[in-house]
From TrEMBL:
HAMAP family: DapB. The keyword ATP-binding does not apply. NAD(+) binds at residues 13-18, 39, 103-105, 127-130. Residues 8-130 form the Dihydrodipicolinate reductase N-terminal domain. NADP(+) binds at residue 40. GO terms for molecular function: 4-hydroxy-tetrahydrodipicolinate reductase; NAD binding; NADP binding; oxidoreductase activity, acting on CH or CH2 groups, NAD or NADP as acceptor. This is 4-hydroxy-tetrahydrodipicolinate reductase. CDD domains: DHDPR_N. Transmembrane segments: none annotated. The active site is at 161 (proton donor/acceptor), 165 (proton donor). It is found in: Cytoplasm. It catalyses: (S)-2,3,4,5-tetrahydrodipicolinate + NADP(+) + H2O = (2S,4S)-4-hydroxy-2,3,4,5-tetrahydrodipicolinate + NADPH + H(+); (S)-2,3,4,5-tetrahydrodipicolinate + NAD(+) + H2O = (2S,4S)-4-hydroxy-2,3,4,5-tetrahydrodipicolinate + NADH + H(+). Keywords: Amino-acid biosynthesis, Cytoplasm, Diaminopimelate biosynthesis, Lysine biosynthesis, NAD, NADP, Oxidoreductase.
């Protein structure tokens, strides 16, 4: 806990697009405080003040590359980095018995198994999208997929992101795919079609298709299309500002503080489960 009684939070990947947005969000939200900032060894941002880098002025938190001492004095860690780093941070958060909020996408099944193991000791909230809007959209997608029969309506998920994004389909697209699959009473694994190229043959009934676009500065656009014969329903979310993800992550941290170790989702945090 920080000296003020606020929840003391460490931001890992503090110099990244989300890292800087998180520093600004924590600074503006009552009850939370930045107590540490971590970047990878060799980062040009080591030694810089995390607040100054994020554009809010000096907050006396220097960006370092050793997570252990900062985790030891914190209540939680906000992590929007890369899968290999996230798996490592999950182990450290479990050792320190602190909350770990994971926004990192592109984790493999093996990464997820290691995160699940860490959740035996740490309270982990992991979601491909921390915004209220997308998590509400997931509930609506599940309802629509349940209501519209697979014989009559095909489900396709389209996402577009900025040109710097490295994983596809996006974590959000997969989260929405999981919601659609749950509505249909099937598992997404084995029923997903992640890309199409060449002579693909006709669409296999009951599958859930994905398409990914990349370009420019798009923060995150997602559409779930339920395509029937003669009609089409499109459920969409457009993220205009990364602050929506950062605010969700801080909300998740404050929620997780009072929770027992385990692996939770943003739907749990928002009461939409
Ligand atoms: N769940 C959600 O709501 C959201 C999830 N995301 C996800 O968050 C992740 C990050 O996105 P974004 O901020 O755009 O990406 P960035 O590349 O801008 O930021 C990632 C940061 O993590 C740093 N990093 C890499 N390895 C380590 C390490 N071992 N220790 C500490 N820091 C490390 C990177 O450093 P360097 O560049 O020097 O390698 C970089 O500064 C992605 O997976 C993205 O999909 C993004 C937005 C919302
Ligand atoms: O990389 C991003 O930027 C984003 N990643 C998340 C995802 O993979 O869905 C969330 C958001 O769409 C932005």
């Amino acid at each position: 806990m920080s000296e003020t009684g606020d929840m003391g939070l460490v931001v890992v990947g503090a110099a990244g697009r989300m890292g800087q947005t998180l520093i600004r969000a924590i600074h503006s939200i009552p009850g939370a405080r930045v107590v540490g900032a971590v970047e990878r060894t060799g980062s040009p941002y080591l030694g810089k003040d995390a607040g100054e880098l994020a554009g809010i002025g000096i907050i006396n938190v220097t960006i370092g590359d050793d997570p252990l001492p900062v985790f030891a004095k914190a209540d939680g860690v906000l992590d929007f980095t890369v899968p290999a780093a996230t798996v490592e941070f999950a182990g450290y958060a479990a050792q320190a018995r602190i909350a770990h909020i994971i926004g990192t996408t592109g984790c493999s099944a093996e990464d997820n198994a290691r995160i699940e193991a860490a959740a035996r000791h740490a309270t982990i909230v992991k979601s491909g999208n921390m915004s209220l809007g997308v998590n509400l959209l997931a509930v609506l997608v599940e309802q629509a997929a349940r209501a519209l029969d697979a014989d009559d309506f095909d489900i396709e998920i389209l996402e577009m992101h900025h040109k710097h994004k490295v994983d596809a389909p996006s974590g959000t697209a997969l989260l929405l795919g999981e919601a659609a699959a749950a509505g249909r009473g099937i598992s997404l694994a084995g029923n997903d079609v992640r890309s199409r190229d060449g002579h693909t043959g006709v669409r296999k009934p009951g599958t859930i298709g994905f398409a990914s676009l990349r370009g420019g500065s798009v923060v995150g656009d997602h559409s779930v299309i339920l395509a029937g014969t003669g009609e089409r329903i499109t459920l969409s979310h457009h993220a205009e500002d990364r602050a929506i993800f950062a605010r969700g992550a801080v909300k998740a941290a404050l929620w997780a503080r009072a929770k027992k170790p385990g692996l939770y989702s943003m739907r749990d945090v928002l009461g939409l489960a």
